[in-house]
Amino acid sequence: MAPEAFVELFQDALYLVLLLVSAIVVPGLLVGLIVAIFQAATSINEQTLSFLPRLIATFIALMFFGHWMTRMLMEYFYRLIDHIPNILY
């Protein structure tokens, strides 16, 4: 198998990781930004105030995107299994 095929598989893996991580991290970042703006506007200096909303947003994102993430990982895994004969020859 040509080295380009390995690079393509690795590139697909990195893209998949970036996609899956952003589906979980972005909602937490948006909630953190909203809480930070609220804290700045009200002059509340409580550090633990932003932790719970971000945690809840992360869990909700996992609930909504969990099935999609599992499907994406399974499709990538099946693609890797399909490429095994090409790798051996």
Count up the domains: 1
Portion of residues in beta strands equals: under 5%
Radius of gyration: 19 Å
Judged by helices, strands and strand pairing, the structural class is: mainly alpha
Q: In short, what is this structure?
A:
The protein is mainly α. It has helices at residues 3-42, 51-82, 84-88. It has 3 helices and no strands.
What does this structure look like?
- This protein is mainly alpha-helical and 89 residues long.
- The chain has three helices and no strands.
- The longest helix has 40 residues, at 3-42.
List keywords for this structure.
transmembrane, 89 residues, 3 helices, 87% helix, mainly alpha, elongated
Helices and strands, with pairings:
Elements: H1 3-42, H2 51-82, H3 84-88
Helix pairs in contact: 1-2
